[in-house]
């Protein structure tokens, strides 16, 4: 009940919209069929905007990495009868140029926020056989952007007294609520953790992870002249950004965290970094590259049963 109220309150805040995106402000990557685009005679084509595709790639890659799900779990599973639910808050340290953050507030001119706040609800359920499923719901504060995530984890080593737990994990995320942007991310990583008992009352569980995150970004047809329209050619000022697909848009990701477990209460903190250089679009080996790096940290409070 409490988590439901929490979701409703933050969902209401999301309707405010200052972090909602207006992709047309990035500029159009290719030539448009018009310049005035209002049906005036003699209207000539408009050349593509320099750097528009690079800005789209940086924006979408940064958002895709910011929405990596904050499961904050150790390598060991909860066991076949185990279940865990938690409320999390992730903070992504945004390092992006003003012209690549086209929100309703900044309009790709004003300074972007220094940090993105992404509250989340996550659950974990053990399946037995050292397998575990997880799911998460996350949203970007002050926007309509939300993400649904899932993970499958296999603990190759767990429960040995004198050895750390080791697991392999695969996860996926779908971002919704963006007007023109289509954004997905996939990843896989290896986790290592160890549980230490303290006074027979609580457990400390330090853990580390290393893996890869892949971001797939595309756009629907964007109206790059929203203030005007040619009734005879309404699509003359519409265009899509070039896609950056999973395999061609890969980033390394590393993180470390600590969990405190006492009774059913679980408290966790985690810090992570993702980085990599990739072409700004598919199918063009000579295309320029963007180097994208994102630091993030998160905290969680939950309950395990």
- The rounded Rg comes to 22 Å
Reading side by side through the largest sheet, how are the strands ordered? 1-2-3-4-5-6-8-11-12-13
The percentage of residues in β strands lies in over 45%
Can you tell me the number of structural domains? 1
- Into which percent range does the helicity of residues fall? under 10%
> Which structural category do the helix and sheet elements fall into?
mainly beta
The major β-sheet equals: 10 strands, antiparallel, barrel
**Count of alpha/pi helices:** 2
**Could you give the count of β-strands?**
13
**Molecular shape:** elongated
Description:
This protein has 305 residues and is mainly beta. The chain has one domain. Helix content is 9%, strand content 46%. The strands form 2 sheets. It has a 10-stranded antiparallel β-barrel. Strands 9-10 form a two-stranded antiparallel sheet. The two termini are 17 Å apart.
Present the secondary structure layout.
Layout: H1 2-14, H2 52-66, E1 83-93, E2 115-128, E3 131-139, E4 146-157, E5 165-176, E6 181-193, E7 196-198, E8 202-219, E9 222-223, E10 238-239, E11 250-262, E12 265-279, E13 289-304
Antiparallel strand pairs: 1-2, 1-13, 2-3, 3-4, 4-5, 5-6, 6-8, 7-8, 8-11, 9-10, 11-12, 12-13
